[in-house]
Amino acid sequence: MEVKVYQNKMRVAEEFSKYFAAKSNEDHPFHVALSGGSTPKIVFDVLADEFSGKINWSNIHLYWGDERCVAPDDDESNYKMTVEHLISKIDIPEENIHRIRGEEDPQTEAKRYGSLLEEILPKELGLPQFDLVILGMGDDGHTASIFPHELKLWISPDNCEVATHPDSGQKRVSITGRIINNAKTVTFLVTGDTKADKVRIIVDREEGYLKYPASHVSPKTKDLVWFLDADAAEELTLDQS
Ligand code: 6PG
């Protein structure tokens, strides 16, 4: 596990964009699962505004680690957020965008998306393998849409599951631990002081850390990188990069 700490959100966005441009510069299709929520917005803006010319988007396939079960034009949609902050600003072929269809029946879509991953991702150890999974982390230690009250979904034998937001009851389709931990590389993008206590508990593996889904992210390749701003890292004993 590598922990990178930067002064603020913009610096996280700049450094992650550099990292992404280098990582995705491959001579084979690069399959990346995106996270949702608010943190990625500034990252996607920087990626699109400052790095779009340095990335061969025709070689990149976009997927989502999770999606809210809403229409793609709903303000809650991770797809809509990604269109606004990234997709609308880059030259990426339509066929490279593999959205989770939030408008469909959740169970039906979880099965469809799980099968899609099975069909089009390369396999490693018999399981679909992303080149990169980008994750966020909620204040409650959830990641993708695996929440603490549904930790059992992490060990699902399926590629995708239907999750329920603990407060709103909103249904979500999420990839599961077997997919996340089979990725070549996993990166966390976590900013803000509301995340600091969970970051400390999870990164420092404090007692009880395993009740938080984000603590179960452990790619078999060991290639896990946390991109944090100073606020999210304020309870860690690390030098800032
Ligand atoms: C989602 C995300 C979720 C998100 C965390 C952090 O659909 O909301 O995929 O896992 O990454 O909730 O969200 P913020 O970036 O908004 O804090």
Please give the count of helices: 6
The CATH architecture assignment of the domain at 24-185 turns out to be 3-Layer(aba) Sandwich
Radius of gyration of CA atoms, rounded to a whole number: 17 Å
Strand order of the largest sheet: 1-11-10-7-2-3
Taking the sheet with the most strands, its summary is: 6 strands, parallel
Low-confidence stretches: none
Question: Helix/strand-derived class?
Answer: alpha/beta
Task: Give helix % range.
Answer: 25-40%
User: What proportion of the residues form beta strands (DSSP E)?
Assistant: 15-25%
> What is the H/E string?
EHEHEEHHEEEEEHEHE
Distance between the termini: 15 Å
Enter the CATH topology name of the domain at 24-185.
Answer: Rossmann fold
Bound small-molecule species: 6-phosphogluconic acid
Number of strands: 11
CATH class of the domain at 24-185 reads Alpha Beta
Question: Could you tell me the mean pLDDT?
Answer: 97
Based on Cα principal axes, name the global outline: globular
Topology:
Layout lengths: L1 E5 L2 H15 L6 E5 L4 H13 L8 E5 L1 E3 L9 H8 L20 H15 L2 E2 L2 E2 L3 E4 L24 E5 L6 E5 L1 H4 L4 E6 L5 H8 L20 E6 L12
Parallel strand pairs: 1-11, 2-3, 2-7, 7-10, 10-11
Antiparallel strand pairs: 4-9, 5-6, 8-9
Helix pairs in contact: 1-2
